[in-house]
Fold this protein.
Amino acid sequence: MSLSVLHTESSLGWGGQEIRVLTEARGVAREGHGVLLAAPANSRIFAEAPRYGIEAVALPIGRKSVRGLAAVRGLLAHREFDVVNTHSSTDSWLAAVACSTLDRAPRIVRTRHISAPVPANRASRWLYSKAARVVTTGERLRKQVIAETGIDPHRAISIPTGIDLAAFHPGERSAARTALGLSADAPIVGIVATLRSWKGHRYLMQALAAMQRPEVSLVVVGDGPQRGALEELAATLGIAAQVRFAGNQAEVAPWMRSFDVFCLPSYANEGVPQALMQAMACALPVVTTAVGSIEEIVTHGDTGIIVPAQNDMRLRVEISNLLDDAEHRAALGARAHAQAHARFGEALMVERMVEVFAGAAEPRG
């Protein structure tokens, strides 16, 4: 059966969550289902939707407002959908309230991407009760949502984000560096993440400074609200010459292939980070933390290295050890690559999401 799915996303930013929304929507559309994205006109996801082949409509849903509520209700009243898949708090509220005012409302699937606590109040419990199903990006997040909202465990399912394994694969490091204008010989530690405080960039930079190894470079791919503060920190630490801020990149796979070590030292709000899975698919040794559902994809000492969050000294030690041991880097990377191909494919995510949408759209009993 062909489904009609509306994705709502109120976020103005750009990161793993927004990329998952578009990647998933593209995959579902390729399976022959109707897909529409509703997002603020000034959001990055709205601007990127055409690149993913996704039809998008601009709605004023960047914040909770009567205007936004009316816009969502108007769309749902005049265009028929089987399912509304909501993604952030604001659009989830607007969709839930709008649906509650309609006689023939679509069913709601609420995707929870991050591990930030759900507010412990009656309003939040009502919001989650309106969802036919709740999808999380990791099992640990699923258990957290069940505990914090009291929803029936059978209505919550973990579906990790899938990545494009055809795009993220090992490649020739020297060729990638030449194409990107990076040093052919310098050891490079890389991070791909939005520049938000909780991604832990500052701990990585402090670790680099503590190494006292001027030959090591740090490449920071991504942009965000912390960029100015991080550039200032690099100067204060005396490592500005070792750090390259590459900004947002439409294609991050070539950057991944240029790295010797990938590091994601997040300390809050993670689900299952796409960049971490992408790095593993590129056969990179990864250093990360046990935040959110990261331990569901990285096993310490086997497919990566896990360090305590907010601990720049442990980062320093583990990164230095990897840079000094090419054989260990290669072994970790090979096992990470095998894990990625076995579990992280985009097709599996799409298949499971279509099953959720189809189940949610079934007639109410």
The longest strand covers residues 34-39. The mean pLDDT is 95.
